[in-house]
Amino acid sequence: MSSYRPLAAVVLAAGEGTRMKSSTPKVLHDLCGRPMILHVLDALERLPLERIVVVVGHGAELVVKTVQELLDGEVPVEFVEQRVQRGTGDAVSVALTAAYFDDHDLEDDLIVLPGDAPLISPDTLARLATAHRNEDAAASILTAIVDDADGLGRIVRGKDGRVDRIVEHADATHDELAIDEINTSIYCFRRNLLAPALRRLSPVNAQGEYYLTDAIAVLRDAGHRVIAEAVEHPAEAFMVNDGAQLADAEHALRDRINRGWMRAGVRMIDPERTYIDSTVELAADVRILPGVILEGRTVIGAGSEIGPDTRIVDSVIGADVIIANSVVRESEVGDGCRVGPFAHLRAGTQLLAGAKVGDFVETKNALLGEGAKANHLAYLGDVTVGAGANIGAGTITANYDGKNKHRTVIGANVRTGSNCVIVAPVEIGDGAVVGAGSVVTRDVPADSLVRGVPARVVEGWVDPSADLDTD
Ligand code: UD1
Ligand code: CA
Fold this sequence. Notes:
Blueprint: E1 7-13, E2 30-31, E3 34-35, H1 36-45, E4 51-56, H2 60-70, E5 77-81, H3 88-95, H4 99-102, E6 109-114, H5 122-134, E7 139-145, E8 154-157, E9 163-167, H6 174-177, E10 181-190, H7 191-199, H8 214-221, E11 226-230, H9 243-263, E12 267-268, E13 274-276, E14 281-282, E15 287-288, E16 292-295, E17 299-300, E18 305-306, E19 310-313, E20 316-317, E21 322-323, E22 327-329, E23 332-333, E24 338-339, E25 344-345, E26 350-351, E27 356-368, E28 373-385, E29 390-391, E30 396-398, E31 408-410, E32 415-416, E33 421-423, E34 426-428, E35 433-434, E36 439-440, E37 449-451, E38 456-457
Parallel strand pairs: 1-4, 1-6, 4-5, 7-11, 12-15, 13-16, 14-17, 15-18, 16-19, 17-20, 18-21, 19-22, 20-23, 21-24, 22-25, 23-26, 24-27, 25-27, 26-27, 27-28, 28-29, 28-31, 30-33, 31-34, 32-35, 33-36, 35-37
Antiparallel strand pairs: 2-3, 6-10, 7-10, 8-9, 37-38
Helix pairs in contact: 7-8
Bound molecules: uridine-diphosphate-N-acetylglucosamine and calcium ion.
């Protein structure tokens, strides 16, 4: 049964992408936090493929390294290098030299697609492969009807309505240029028929290239069946060739991501002003205000409200958190925390449940215990703050002596007054109070009051706010 033929995919990604006018290889340009080619590979990963072969050329080393680092799918990926870019037909010939094809029977079907089609969906690819098998075709072309076919290959049909061949824009006659059915450059082929057809290609054409598109006429002339499958959503076949198209593709992808989350129970006040990477995960009942950018491996728990104007990168945010007008990077924010407005949580910040970081507070490598508060104007770097501590306005941990960084430990329920400088390394015991304007240079005993410059213990002090019903 033909429907049991194994399925593999070939991704063409050797081209230079000159129109991007960039030193970055085209397929590595970023869309919604992931290089273009990764979006193509993510779609392929959702098909029952035996193997993915990526043809690399321009920037090969970087493309291979990036894909290997970022792809976490299960389908084995193999790279082959097309040293000279002699056209899409040559690129597929090179792909067929991959080790996988050597020791694999010839019977498989091959999905071939370019690495610069980041909007293609797994459903469309699956539909193409299904039609290909159901019709027992040698080649199946995903086509689209477009308003502007400029630069694209046209589908030329015979009198019987069947696909005869594809003509490239540069080689088309006046009449052929009027055809509005175009080749998306996404195909499914029978490998055992494609391989000999590729050997029949010649570069005698306007671009002097071996066109994969010419394999269609070769197969037809040999009496094989070629079908065209129209793409249901033409936007999916959108190819990125320059910076403006990259922005258009990203806009479309962003819209798709946002709609997906809104259907999953996330509320967005203004999806047009909400920017979520494809790698982000959101729980139900997350509420996103305008101007929010969520990047990388960020996760946000149920019921949290983010924004307005907030950027969160590679961070894990718990449930029922509120973060307003802030920047958060490589941090963890526990359930029920409040952050901002105008806070900056830098790498290594960890806020335990119910902690609060208010306006104009910067943290870095800082652990704030449960319910700890730094409400205004503070710098907390390389510090552990105990549960329930209250960091006063203007408290600074002076963690840098000009040479090395040192750590500060602030105990549970410590209170620091306004404008304190805590010079690390230093430890402030549980329940201690640091008077306003102090400069703490030595360890502070638990439950004591220190004040002054440098801060000294105030003898005989009794905390007026301490538990009064003990006597
Ligand atoms: C190709 C199709 C055209 C189709 C259009 C859709 C051919 C000859 N033409 O044209 O019918 O309408 O796509 O966008 O196939 N590549 C290689 N090695 C090469 C040449 C290209 O890997 O030697 C890769 C490129 O990196 C790119 C893809 O193949 O990802 C398409 O190549 P490109 O030159 O952009 O083809 P188009 O001229 O756009
Ligand atoms: Ca070309």
